[in-house]
Design a protein that fits this description.
Blueprint (H helix, E strand, L loop, with lengths): L1 E4 H10 L4 E4 L3 H4 L8 E2 L17 E5 L4 H12 L3 E6 L1 H4 L6
Length: 98
């Protein structure tokens, strides 16, 4: 599984305007703040929302601590997607939120 730290993701976002970030936390958790531009698809819905995820694009998966996003990353990789897990999740994120 490909991984990036929260700091690496911040740098990546600065240098790449078309970054796809998928936040797999529950809707209530996301209300506390998410990475700007991130799309919320709760982990339990990933399988049913795969048609909404562009297969040819790279996706950074995010959750609270990195565990659920790791599961989502593995699931998507097993279905031919290019996914990267953000280790440490939002607990390690010190960048802007919306």
């Amino acid at each position: 599984m490909k991984r990036m730290t929260a700091q690496e993701v911040q740098e990546y976002i600065k240098n790449n305007k078309d970054v796809s970030i998928i936040d797999v936390r529950e809707t209530e958790e996301v209300k506390a703040g998410k990475i700007p531009g991130a799309v919320n698809i709760p982990l339990g819905l990933i399988e049913f929302r795969m048609h909404d995820i562009e297969k040819s694009q790279e996706h950074i998966m995010v959750c609270r601590s990195g565990s659920r996003s790791g599961m989502a990353t593995n699931f998507l990789e097993n279905h031919g997607y290019n996914a990267i897990n953000m280790d440490g999740g939002m607990m390690d994120w010190d960048g802007p939120t919306e």
